[in-house]
């Protein structure tokens, strides 16, 4: 299939000079035989016995070079090749085992190579060591103070969202606001109002654990950012799940009092690099439309 090889060679040339840098590796995944191959400089850096891995997505296989906690994400990304579009570039993060036995974070950027029949036959991509960036993100996480009442991040959580936006290719930002929060305070008291507020925060803090950031912006306003979703369909599923919670959640204000937990939200999807404030503006506008429609 010379036309495929020509296309593959063209894509390789785009990444070729990157192989000269020690912190950047190139990989190729062949969809047809489920194999993955790395450039030669990977042997200097990673815990590999050879440059070629066979049957990568087979559930019975494990590969020491991949962190055990990331192997499922690796398989899911490779299985998702079929859904990729020409010239679409995906981004992800993965932990790889180094020669010294430690794990480092790498940023993966990859695209599909299409065959004569218009179907993806290969993935080609780069792996760039981003350990310093991750260390900085951890530092920001430690610096970010939790909101003392609700336990989620305060406005410092926005820094974490911005840091994550630089690393991911697909995500969704929600803006949320309690409905008639003043009425709850006036009717039941401030202690019960705090409980009402805290239970929305608790709902957000446990939504999509492991790939979400929840933060309180102030008053009864919150943001929720979701990342590490492979498809738009998965993100749409998150919206539906939050809609279900919007219509079914209840808040226990004290031992004797339980009321509906009522909130409005808006959201904005992002693909590729995006600006937090642009996403927030769109999500905020949609939230007020949602609040208006719920009142009517």
Explain how this protein is built.
- This protein is 37% helix and 29% strand.
- The chain has nine helices and twelve strands.
- The strands form three sheets. The chain has a six-stranded antiparallel sheet, with helices on both faces.
- A hairpin with a 4-residue loop joins β1 (24-30) and β2 (35-38).
- It is elongated.
- The model has no long low-confidence stretch (mean pLDDT 88).
Key descriptive features of the protein:
296 residues, alpha+beta, 4-stranded antiparallel sheet, 9 helices, 12 strands, 29% strand
List the helices and strands and how they pair.
Blueprint: H1 2-15, E1 24-30, E2 35-38, H2 42-45, E3 52-53, H3 71-79, E4 89-97, E5 103-114, E6 120-129, H4 131-143, H5 157-165, E7 170-178, H6 181-188, H7 190-205, E8 212-218, E9 221-227, H8 232-248, E10 250-254, E11 257-260, E12 263-271, H9 276-295
Antiparallel strand pairs: 1-2, 1-6, 2-3, 4-5, 5-6, 7-9, 7-12, 8-9, 10-11
Helix pairs in contact: 6-7
What is the element string, with H for helices and E for strands? HEEHEHEEEHHEHHEEHEEEH
Q: What is the residue-mean pLDDT, rounded to a whole number?
A: 88
Strand order of the main beta sheet, please? 3-2-1-6-5-4
Shape: elongated
Portion in strands: 25-35%
Largest sheet: 6 strands, antiparallel
Number of strands: 12
Cα distance, first to last residue?
Answer: 61 Å
The assembly state of the depicted protein chains is single chain
Contiguous uncertain segments of 5+ residues = none
Please give the radius of gyration in angstroms.
23 Å
Structural class: alpha+beta
Number of helices: 9
| Helix content range | 25-40%
């Amino acid at each position: 299939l010379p036309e495929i090889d020509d296309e593959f060679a063209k894509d390789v040339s785009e990444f070729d000079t990157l192989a000269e840098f020690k912190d950047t590796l190139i990989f190729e995944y062949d969809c047809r035989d489920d194999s993955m191959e790395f450039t030669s400089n990977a042997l200097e850096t990673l815990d590999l016995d050879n440059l070629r891995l066979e049957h990568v997505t087979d559930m019975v296989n494990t590969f020491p070079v991949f962190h055990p906690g990331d192997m499922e994400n690796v398989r899911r990304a490779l299985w998702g090749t079929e859904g990729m579009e020409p010239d679409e570039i995906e981004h992800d993060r993965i932990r790889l085992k180094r020669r010294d036995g430690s794990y480092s974070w790498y940023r993966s950027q990859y695209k599909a190579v299409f065959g004569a029949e218009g179907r993806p036959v290969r993935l080609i991509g780069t792996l760039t060591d981003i350990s310093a960036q991750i260390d900085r993100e951890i530092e920001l996480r430690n610096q970010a103070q939790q909101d003392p009442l609700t336990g989620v991040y305060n406005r410092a959580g926005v820094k974490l969202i911005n840091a994550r936006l630089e690393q991911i290719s697909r995500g969704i930002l929600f803006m949320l606001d309690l409905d008639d929060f003043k009425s709850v305070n006036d009717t039941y008291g401030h202690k019960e109002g705090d409980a009402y507020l805290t239970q929305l925060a608790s709902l957000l803090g446990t939504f999509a654990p492991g790939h979400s950031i929840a933060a309180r912006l102030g008053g009864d306003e919150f943001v929720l950012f979701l990342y590490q979703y492979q498809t738009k369909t998965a993100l749409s599923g998150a919206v539906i799940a939050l809609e279900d919670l919007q219509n079914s959640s209840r808040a226990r204000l004290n031992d004797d009092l339980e009321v509906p937990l009522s909130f409005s939200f808006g959201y904005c999807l992002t693909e590729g690099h995006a600006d937090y404030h642009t996403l927030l503006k769109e999500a905020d506008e949609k939230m007020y439309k949602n609040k208006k429609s719920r009142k009517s």
